[in-house]
Design brief:
alpha+beta; single chain; 5 strands; elongated
Length: 183
Amino acid sequence: MRQSIVLRAAPSLRQAKRILIGLQQMLVERGATVELVGNDALRFRMPYPWHTHRLGWLIPVTSGRAEVSAGGGGPWRVRYQLNFSMLRYICITLSVALAVIGRGWPRLTLLNGLVILWLACYALVTSIASSRFSKLLEAASSDIVERRQRSRTEAASAAGSDPAPGKDEPEIDRDTRTEPSAG
């Protein structure tokens, strides 16, 4: 499943590389092995859950890929793809175990059990892990996504209240026209 985060502007090569290096550092902190692929992509492999030193919601992710691209002339994005193969194997194993345990159950009960298992174990966990990875990407690309340090209203009010640089007093609008004197 491919997902993406839209960037506000077309990043320069340096900015795209900075996004990927930031993501690489965050993933390495979580124990992943990361490989930069060219100037605009990276691949990563997360450690097995029993080899990780830090528990978190990214444990279900087995591997993935992220790239900065415009994709067919559209807006610039950071596209990513996550692989949950280890989680799928665990869910299949649990499904087989549930089928063996529930041999004597009514078929509808067994089917409901399998649906609940896959919804709780696979769908919910993958959506949470995808959301957490998306937040990592947003943090890595925050200087491109959020180009302004202040909102427009703050910038406009700050510009309107400060006097012009180099002037101590505000200018006074004076009328320099002369009026005819009444005789």
